[in-house]
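Q: How do we represent a protein-ligand complex in a form that can be generated token by token?
A: Start from the inputs.
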Amino acid sequence: MKHLISPSLLSADFANLKEDIDMVNRSNADWFHIDIMDGVFVPNISFGFPVLTAISRYAKKPLDVHLMIVEPDRYLQQFKDCGAHTITVHYEACTHLHRTIQAIKDVGCKAGVALNPHTPVAFLSEVIGDLDLVLIMSVNPGFGGQKFIENTYEKIRQLIAMASAKNESLLIEVDGGINLGNASDLLKAGADVLVAGNAIFAAKNPEAVIDELKNIAVSNIRI
Ligand code: DX5
Ligand code: ZN
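Then emit the structure tokens for the protein with zinc ion bound:
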């Protein structure tokens, strides 16, 4: 399977959201990346259920929902009802992570866990077999347009080593500061899904950037 591109609507034009949704529908992107921020887990508030419901009315590709919120268990069914395909929760926000992962599956979604830049990959060793996706944050979560953290490559390598022993179908997603300058190295390191916000929506021709990201040729893709 070729790598996947998940444009982050956080950087879209909210006054013309449908135009940006249509652009992603037309493009070679694979998913819509949906960043939900609660102002508690991260120092920013993005948008909630009414906006997500509106997005899902027009989006023709799976909704990749990244929850940067505390107590995500309270809202899993609602995110599913709003059209979520994959729900990714933060390791740092889940006291009972194993239970939360099962609850995501119980509502009928693919289950992902995100790791902040300071959180070791090894902390997932006991649940990695239960996961569909791990999201490695390559910036501190909360804002689009931040600088990529270089240690991300090392974390991808560690995650691949862990996944090859325990979960061969695991998808590795990377999120934050991704652009045409580092995407190829991330894919070479083993990323399966690239999230990009600013690099796509701040570009003159967002569809062309998606195309370029999607068409990067990498010989050692694992999946
Ligand atoms: C950051 C979000 C990201 C963000 C990425 O907290 O999780 O998805 O939108 O945006 P860029 O690609 O601009 O770093
Ligand atoms: Zn995100």
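The pocket of D-xylitol-5-phosphate (ligand 1) is lined by residues 8, 10-11, 33, 35, 66, 139, 141-146, 175-178, 195-199 (CB under 6 Å). The chain is about 30% helix and 20% strand.
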